[in-house]
Specification:
Blueprint lengths: L9 H9 L5 H19 L2 E2 L3 H10 L10 E5 L27 H7 L4 E6 L34 H9 L4 E6 L5 H7 L2 E4 L20 E6 L2 H11 L17 H5 L8 E4 L11 H16 L3 E4 L6 H27 L10 H11 L3 H22 L9 E5 L18 H6 L4 H4 L4 H6 L3 E8 L5 E8 L4 H14 L11
Parallel strand pairs: 2-3, 7-8, 7-9
Antiparallel strand pairs: 1-3, 4-6, 5-6, 5-10, 9-11, 10-11
Helix pairs in contact: 2-3, 5-6, 10-11, 10-12
Amino acid sequence: MLRDLDCKDATDLAARVAAREVSPAELLDQALAAVDRLNPRLNAVTLVQEGAARRALDAGLPWGPFRGLPFLIKDLGCEAVEFPAHNASRLLADTRWSGDSTIFARMRATGVVTFGRSTSPEGGIGAATEAAVYGGPTRNPWNPGHTPGGSSGGAAAAVAAGIVPLAHGSDGGGSVRIPAACCGLFGMKPTRARLPDGPYSGEGWGGMAIDGFLTWSVRDTAAMLDACHGADPGAPYHAPPLREGFLQAAARPPRRRLRVMMCDTTFTGAPIHPDCARAVHDAARLLEDLGHHVEPGRPDADIAGMMRAWTDIVACGTALGIREALQRRGRSLQPGDVEGVARGAMAHAATLSGADYLAAVSTIHDFGRQMAAVFDPEGGGGPDILLSATLAEPPARVGRFAHTSEDYLHFRLGAGMTFDYSPFTAAFNASGQPAASLPLGMSGTGLPIGVHLAARFGADEELIALCAELERAAPWHARRPPLA
């Protein structure tokens, strides 16, 4: 869609709509045609609601920054009256709501034309998108034998393939940043509680989950964050206030040259794939060329303890979601309702007491304090930014993270499994700090590699200003996948 109209990003395309060079109805037609053409190969789009999109056009669109652009919301959360959801599970198929979530209402106010949902793994667990309810895995438009990531894998695949110019996602352990890395896009997780999570929930996964967006440019994400940020009524906690806003920050360089800690291993010192390490070193050199100060290092924090606590909290959240679904349906769990990993998560949660759950939450809180000390040690002098790869490897092959096994702990923590593959992103869901994946690298086999930047808690504007500066210095928009 962007390439056909010679647009760099969604902001460019919205300007074409405003200039009446193309109409919202024409863009919707093009998006639906792209679904027909590409979705059989990608399996990224589900629950298409063309009628809802046509009604929105007929009613008149809000005059927001993305007025008239076709849009997808993730098939996990993001409750919306006109958009039933499977929530990536056969147990939850065709779930409907009586009211819209706050995040959906704010996204709709930008003028986007939502016409369907994008695929996700069951429960949002995992770094790949392979849910049985969709009849097969979601595939990467750069190479269909590889995953587009998870859990916002369908959103990333749809944007990268050109079906939509931007899409909604969510991130509880890297679920925006991992797909962004796999599909060559920009994805940012803002500071904890920066975006609303109501009225259907107060927090997700002990406060570790938050919504987000998959985009081609930093400014597209910035505009969406400006439109959607801020707590909704009854929110259990608020993020620190912004000083100027995301888009204004992205339009200028960082206000100072920054201290960057570069980690070219995992945070525990294990080696990562050479292509990923090379992307980190290339980004470090670029940052130095821009005048920032880069030094190697690793954060002094209990990474292994954090991941085990994350794993316990997510198991309990999965079990709660299944229990509530069964209560609404007035029946017990039946064979085939949920996949193996979800059954394993339920079994693991059953071994945990209420005290165990609170201990896991305390471990996450302790970890947040440890990471805060990394960035702001007593006496000052800590880094402003932590630079690493987004993933320890290029995008995995389809099937590696299938949800067939009931060994939930192995799926998360086993050798070669999710945490070994994605050892970086969940740390910042646990700490609540803002973090972003930038598509600055490519593997030797032609797959995207993401570079990961994280900042102090609340320093979203400084982080997005740096991301935009890197984008201007090393633009990535001309790289598009073969399937686009």
